[in-house]
Amino acid sequence: MERSLLSVLLLGLGFMMLFTAFQTMGNIEKVVIDSIARDDSSFTGDGYVSLSIIYATFAICNWIAPSVVAILGPRGAIVVGSLTYSIFTASFLTPKTWLLYGCSALLGLGAAITWNGQGVYLSRCSNSATISRNSAIFWAMLQASMLIGNTFVWHEFSGLTQVNVETRTLLFAVLVAMALLGVVTLFALPKHVAPQSSARPLAEFKAAAKMAVSPEMALLSTTFLYTGLELSFFSGVYSPTVGFTTALGAKHLVGLSGVCIGLGEVVGGIACGVAGGRWRRDVIVFCGYVVHGIAFAAALINLPDSAVFGDTEALSLLVPPSATVALLAAFLLGLGDACFNTQIIAMLGGVFASKSAAAFALFRFMQSSAAATSFAYSTVFGLRTQLAILATAGAIGTLAFWRVEWRTRVAEMGIEEAEKKRLPEHQVE
Fold first, then answer.
1. pLDDT at position 64, please?
2. 211 versus 173: which is more confidently predicted?
3. In 10 A of CB 192, how many CB atoms?
4. pLDDT for 304-323, tens place per residue?
C-alpha cells in the first residue's frame, strides 16, 4: 500500500478516536448538562452556550492557526491541538460552570490548530488524482466516531428518563480514555509527508487575508456558512430535540439519533468516494442539499417547535410523533453533511492546493462562525425558525458552490487548450 494512503488511514483512525469523545459529547451535551443542573443547583452551565463558545473561539483563532501550523508543521499542530479535546472531555468529571466555559474556549483554540493542520496534512498526502478519494476515506473514518460513541450512549441511556450521576461518570471516563487514545495515534503520524518550506507565520496570515477577498472565496463563503449552520443543528440541536420530545418515550433516542447521523456520514463518505471519480463536485453538493431538504421537512412535521429548549409535551404536526421518522431524518442529516464537506475538502485540497493552509483556515473560520451563531440563536429560536434559516442558507450555498465549480472547470479547460496549441501536433495526439 502506498505510503500516502497509509498516512491518510492513520490520520482518519486518530481523528475517529478523538472525535468519538468530542462528537458524542456534543451530541448529548445539552441533555447531560440539564441533568447536572437538576442534581447540583450551583451549576448553571448551558450546553448551547458551551458549544457557542467553542465555535466562536474556533472562528477567531482560525486567523492565527495557519501561523501555528507554519511553525509546528501540520503533524505537530494536530498533536498539540488534539490535547485540548481530552482536557475538555475530562472537565465533565468535575462539573463546574467556570471550568465548562473555560475549557470550551481552550478547545476552540485547539480545534482551530488541529483542523488547519489536518487540512494541510491531507493535502500533502494527496494529488489531483487522489484528493477526492483521500477526502472521502478520511471523512468516513472520522464520522464512524459517531457510530462508536453514540452506540455506547444508546446502551447506557436505555430505559432512562433522567441521566443519573453514575451513568454520567461512566460515560465521561470512557470518552476521556478514547480521546487520549486518539492523541497517541496522531502522535504516530509520519513526520514528513511531502517537502516542507520554511515556516513563514506572517506570510501565512497575509495569504489568508488576501484570499478572503477573492471572488471565488467570496462565493464559497456562503457554502462554508451553511455547513456551519447545519453542523450545529445535527451535532448539538437535533438529537437533544428528539430526546426532549416526551411523546417519543425515552432518553436513549438521543444516542440512537447520533448513531443514525453517524451512519449517514459514513455511508455518505463512502458514496462520495465512489462517485468522486464519476460525478462532478457540484452535482454531489446538489444531491446533499436535496437530502437535507427531505430531512428538514421530516423534522418540521415530526418534532414540536419548543423541543429545542427542554422536555416538552407539546404536539407536532404529526400526531403522535414517530421515532422512525426522527431516526430517518437523523440519517439524512448525516448523509447530506458528508456530501457537502467531502466536496469542499476536495475542492480546497485540489483547486487551492498551493495555498491549502490559508484556504482551510478560511473554511474553518466561516464554518465555525456560523456554528457559533447557530448555537447562540438556538437558545431563543424554536425548531421551525431554525429549519427555515437552514433551508434558505442551503439553497444559497449550493448555488454558490455550483458557480465556483463551473468557473474552475472553464479555467482548467482553457489551460488545457492553450497547452495543446503550444505542443507539436504529434505530441497532442
1. 84
2. 173
3. 9
4. 999 988 888 888 888 888 99
pLDDT of 429 reads 45
Query: Which residue shows C-alpha cell 462554508?
Result: 224
Whole-angstrom distance, CA of residue 60 vs CA of residue 227:
17
List all residues 6 or more positions away from 194 whose beta carbon is below 8 Å from its beta carbon: 124, 125
Q: Are 48 and 309 in contact (CB under 8 A)?
A: no
- Cell numbers linked to 39: 442534581
Using DSSP, state whether 129 is helix, strand or coil. coil
Q: What is the pLDDT of residues 326-358, one digit of tens each?
A: 999 999 999 999 999 888 888 887 777 667 767
| Residue 85, Ramachandran bin (φ over 0: left; ψ between -120 and 50: alpha; else beta) | alpha
- Residues 388-411 have a mean pLDDT of 90
3-state secondary structure of 217: helix
Judge whether residue 227 has pLDDT over 60.
Answer: yes
Helix (H) or strand (E) run with residue 229 in it: helix 215-232
Buried b (16+ CB within 10 A) or exposed e, 169-185: eebbebbbebbbbbbeb
Give the whole-angstrom CA distance, residue 91 versus residue 97: 10
Angstrom distance (rounded) from CA 401 to CA 356: 18
Give phi and psi for 245, each to the nearest 5: -80, 95
Neighbours of 265 (CB within 10 A): 29
Cα separation, 267 vs 94, whole angstroms: 36
Nearest CA among 136, 176, 144 for reference residue 261: 144
pLDDT averaged over the chain?
Answer: 85
Residues facing 245 on adjacent strands: 312
- As a 3-state breakdown, the chain gives helix, strand, coil percent values, each rounded to 5, of 80, 0, 20
Q: What is the CA radius of gyration of the chain?
A: 21
How many whole angstroms separate alpha carbon 154 and alpha carbon 242? 13
Average pLDDT over residues 172-183: 93
Confidence class for position 428, pLDDT limits 50, 70, 90: very low
Cis peptide before 95 (omega within 30 of 0): no
